[in-house]
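Appendix B. Raw example, untouched.
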Amino acid sequence: MPDTLSRLGLRRMTARDADQHHRVASPLELLFDLVFVVAVSQASQNLHHLISEDHTGQGVLAYLMVFFAVWWVWMNFTWFASAFDTDDWLYRVLTIAQMGGVLVLAAGVHAAMVDFDFVVVTWGYVIMRLAMVAQWLRAAASDPASRRTALRFAVGIAIVQVLWVARLYLLDGALEFWSFFVLVALELLVPVWGESAGRTTWNPHHIAERFGLFTLLLLGESLLASANALFDALGEGEHVGELIGLGVSGLVITAGIWWVYFAREQHGRLRGMTAGFRFGYLHYVIFAAVGAVSAGVEVEIDEITGHAHVSEVIAGLSLTLPVAIVVLSSWIILLRTKIAPWASALVVLGAVLIALAGLLPEGEYAATAVLLAAVVIVIEVDAVRRARSVSPV
């Protein structure tokens, strides 16, 4: 078998060492992430337009539904790659096939969010998931020690994909809508069932780095989308002072989110299966909120320039709520056990005040920037105090 694989230019797909040192993201993984940002960008742009056109409830719900597909496929590939990446031509082809599915999904985001027509999004999603079935089957064939786990993943994913397609053509109306959440629950259960047969050998350092890199890409997409909207608005030559203030605040907010997320090392908390599930699943909230920040900035631009059809409060909350959610969820997932109780209390208070800043009649974006900067200061003061307490006298 090894000779046959070698002649085909393939490597045996066996479980990698979970404690491998200096494990970093591969160029293929970075390319993979870039394609996913296209889908996130489409989702955030449509969220912006729906909120500005006074369809806030529809926009938020549809965004969260579409974002699940993006996040779930990205995370499943990331965990698989951490344990089984061979980087041979077949592995690359199957990964590129998933990228094609992402582009199909991205093409259907507008119809999904505006008309709740999930046909194209579903087919793009299924393409990506079936590519993962092929990867898991290859792992099952190559690695006897991981076979039971790999087969569980392959079978579970395949069955749920059949149900996704059946949902499109056999259900309609309320049944089609509510079945989405039933299938989401089944998707979430597949890894729990699979890993119960034996934990895959994902690398804590690699996983922490991959999640951090994806957060950076989401922040970059947010900056780019906000900057493009700001440039277009400034080109009209009106409301220049307010728009510049929003631009400066947006930069501070982006830097603040980055600072809060990367304030402490995270790989140490990824030693057990339960910790891994908690870390991965709860990141949906962080990723979705970070992706929505750019939509909030663009709604604020529309409100300043008179192009929004929503109240000032809705426009303000469209920015402050995602930022508050990022801060609060980062505290829950990343910081709660790593900072002092007094610092935790102030971070949570800061998140609450950031959310409430959306109710201000004006200047909510500046208030958000100031409050987020205060949260960063609290985290850094805590770091200094901790460093002093452990330093030798």
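End of appendix B.
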